[in-house]
Amino acid sequence: MSLFLKKYKLQISCCLVLLLSSCEKIIDLNLDQTAPKIVIEAIFTDLTANHLVTISFTKNFEADNKKVPVSGALVVLKEENGPTISFIEQGKSGNYYSTKFKGIAGKKYTMTVTANGKIYTAISKMPFPVPLKSLNQIELTFFGETKKLVQANYNDPIGIENFYYNKLYVNDVKRGSLYIESDRFNDGKEVKNTIFISDPDLKTGDKVKVQLLTIDENVYKYLFSISQISGNGGPPTTPANPTSNFTNGALGYFSASTISTDSLTIK
Amino acid sequence: MIPQVCKNLIALIIFYFISISFTYAQKNYTLNGIVKSAISGENLIGASVKISGPTTLATSSNAYGFYAATLPNGNYKIEISYIGYSTVIKQIVITSNKTEDFNLEEFNNLNEVVITSVRRNENLIKAQMGVEKLNIKDIQNVPVLFGEKDILKTLQLLPGIKSAGEGNSGFYVRGGATDQNLILLDEAPVYNASHLLGFFSTFNSDAIKDVTVYKGGMPAQYGGRLSSVLDVRMNDGNKKQTTFEGGIGLISSRLKIEGPFVKDKSSFMISGRRTYADAFLALSPDTSLRGNTLYFYDLNAKANYQLDEKNTLYLSGYFGRDKLGLSNTFGFNWGNATGTLRLNHLFSSRLFSNTSIIMSKYDYQIENLLSGSEFKVSSSIKDFNLKQDFSFALANTHELKFGFEGIHHTISPGQISSPVTSSVNELKIESRKGLELAAYISDSYNLSDQIKLVYGLRLSSFSVLGGSNYKTYNIDGEELSSVFYKKGEFVKTYVNLEPRISASFQLDDTKSLKGSYARNVQNLHLMSNSTATSPTDLYIMNSLNTKPELADQFSLGYFNNLKNNNYEFSAEVYYKPMQNQIEYRNGTDLRGNQNVEADLVYGKGRAYGLELFFKKKYGRFNGWIGYTISKTERQFDLVNEGKWFKARQDKPHDISVVGIYKAGKRWILSSTFIYSSGSAVTFPIGKYSLDGQTVFYYGDRNANRTPNFHRLDVSATLEGKSNKKFKSSWNFGIYNLYNRKNPFSIEFKNNPDNTSQTQAVQRSLFGVIPSVTWNFKF
Fold it and tell me: Which residues of B touch A234 (CB under 8 A)?
């Protein structure tokens, strides 16, 4: 909700900025550097699949965005009162795949990663599934410019806390923005969630795919912190590093999620 | 507990009072009266009253133009002076109590530009330090953004007062945050002093008579904020004749009407202003553009009535509102409303009383009009305040001020309402109520010709009131207890003693040393987790978890006037430790947060600095140079691994230069230059990628700085040909003359042309901005 506010505030300041011969320029700040930190990204779902864990190092700001893989790690997933699943690295890519399996909603999962002599552990409980009902196209006008947007519809279960992560693909390319939601303001409602898509805007013929993932509260908090510091649509907060659910100072997160997918073509 | 404390304090005041009266009240008589403008009948605030004869004495008129002095019998020379007015000198024989009003003639303002300072060496001899007074005439010629005169922007050109950022009316005083300034408009607190997301301040200079800002050594009658007091007084209205005044500018227009109800007895003033950035939108051929709104307006009104010789009644009010809206999508409006009813009463020739009933409200509404998820959020803070102030001219060496006040606060943090068809649920966050009580006594004491003191004590209490649930939390923000307190029940009371002292020691005719100490207490706290202030920032009050913020400020100053008081130099140093400072935990979600206190952490702060000021006060050319070097830091056990870090308001170097030149008969040229260090910010020291999004890894809190900020503005005012009835002037200005691209924000993101690379993008708000305004008066 105040996310709306942030969006509009940004729009309005942008508008003022435009009116007032504003300018943007790329600057060189000579940023400090830190020793590489380990980053673990692990999402697995309730679909039967070879699930992926990616382990990499942080890089300096001036470097390119290509991941520096962390190879030779030991990645193990343990289901509460259930089996233990090992992940095998594909070559030296830092990508570790499981054998085919599916997660079970309501179960608690523990992931243990052993890399470079350190052990990192995270726990995530897979929430109960919330299916994506439908997608539909809407149009909104901002200062004379009509934008095509997508609305994701689902029924939030009443009486329990739900957290969502929408992954958005346009023409099969994943968009970087984080679309996370909680049901704090719409518990038990028929939710019509407008997904603000820009840079570039949607156009007729674009194929939009939305994956609705349920996530637990810790993962939500982690992703929320990231969306705050990346100034997703508003004046940025004083940045601080988000708290990962991994122990021992690793960055990234571990999420046991249910998933539901829908797509549509923009008219 | 409170009544007992109050009783004790009252007893103490009475005792003090009687004991001093005994010592000094001998064969003395009282001289009192009102200092007024001869043209408009407007009372003049802070006019200098210099009395010489058997005893020599310097005092000044109070906020209602009233002065009083206690004198032994004899022949006296009375000299009354006020900025922009001719000095009046009068011989008076005192053989009994006497009332003498003074009417000062405005000078022909074309002769010279008067910048400030009432009396040529008042800055040296007054005990009060850390104070700056701006007369509205002072700011007339200082160039500002869009040519819109703005007292808050002009104040930021003084040393020790720093801008919170370009296009932002927020300001930092001696290392304090923006919410640590007590901003009073006719005694009513103003909770959000900015319009249009900070581009303008809420103070329409047409309606303002006088502004005083205290950076340190605050007199005991003020309390409630840590860093500064900004006391703004509205015009009373012309008592002699009805006049119209206004201005037409590129961004806004203003109109003021003032005049007598009953000549010389009562008058009124109404002043309004509206911006019309969106008026252009209405002209657009695009219908969707026409539905958008973006404007603010404000209205100041004041009336006074002199009931009899001893009683005058004042009623004043302010109402302002900002509106932003996108048609069929979104609406947002916010604003302040204040009202003050005051009675000035003269108990005796020496005892002046002012009783005020004050209300103040700040609220905002956000409306989401998107079909299917409509909702409306409303939030407000409301104050009711009763205040009683006395000033008593005890003897020629003592002037007492004492009084008490009670403020009832209600904060409604937020309520969401929505239609049943909306996907958004209704939600109400519990209101909080609090009662702030204070009593004070303060004495201006002229110990000798060299040594002058203002010292006093303020006793303040804050009671958290029932009517809602109060929770306690452990260090990790987990709930420990939750108790419902009945309406009217006292949940918790915090009591604080606030000593204040300011002293001057005059070394010779041109030099003096001053020192001051003040403790300040703050019971309301504005919480913001963004790097810019927003109308939706949340006010919270003390609770079981949140304690009053405390600051102790020590300052020392050296003052030197040169060349027959034409030049003024001062150097002041200060040190200010602060306790019970508040920050949000990292990653707090503020949207409709019902347990905000679980997300607060508490720590301490410290600020210190040196302020240098050099001013040429008189002549065709005048102006000033201010330089501040300072440091402001904070320490929280749970932030930045417990290490001290620079506060957001830390800007080590700050320079401002103001020059005003009277060129010929009708032209006034002026220019300002400012330079300051960049803001303390946190930059990334690394990056990684999560699911296709680049995420930055940050280093120590506020360990970096944005590029330095500097800017040159110029303006020229052309006075219309002098005509008895109708006066007009043109003001031409250029903001940011050399088109400096100052940083407004720095964003780190992927290079849009090459997404395998990241870049830092600096956004600037204003390039060169010309402005023109036409002002008139008749």
Answer: 530
